[in-house]
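Here is my example:
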Amino acid sequence: MLEDVSHAYGAVQALERVSLRAAPGEVVAIVGPSGCGKSTLLDLVCGLTVPSGGRVDGGRAVLMPQRDQLLPWATALDNAALALRVQGLSAKEARAQAHPLLQELGLAGFERTRPAALSGGMRQRVAVARTLLAGAPVLCLDEPFGALDAITRADTQAWLASALLRTRRTVLLVTHDVEEAVVLADTIVVLSPRPGRVLATLPNPLPRPRATTDPDVQALRAEALGAMR
């Protein structure tokens, strides 16, 4: 996916010789301090940025940014269906395909609700539905829960863990929360302070679902934090 990739913004070196692989259906979490190039890495995989050096092969990847970017005038159903409208489906066809997914994601009864009347967790679920409906085999999630309060964040993490098991997409998850990475990911990649370099690649053998109170989860969290230091 990334082979010996470096990237700079003018005189600022964001990433330095980063290599990263993700198997089909694997969830890879990327953690590291603020400013280490995590979001830049996702932009490179999605083809939104051309690397200064190295090779990127992201295939068909779609980016879900931290903010949900829902259209305020559109309903939850129409926001989710937007990915299908872009692919050329009619409004009726797009809604018909999006509707079962919203129900599966716990949004039954809220299909006609506009974003302003949805909770933060619900908005994120609509954004994830839109991302899934884009049909890309690789999902790049950039701090998807960064704007949520602690309780909503925990609930939405559990929901996403279940959704990823069902969809079996390849996922790159950028997060500053190491515990979140351990709960959700099959592999945890630790980046250094800028310029971002791979300090450690930690496999996560713990069976799902994973609870934050599990001593093994806390042990792997401590290992990742140790690598960051």
Summary: The chain has a mean pLDDT of 89. The beta strands are 2-9, 12-20, 27-31, 53-56, 61-64, 138-142, 170-174, 187-191, 198-203.
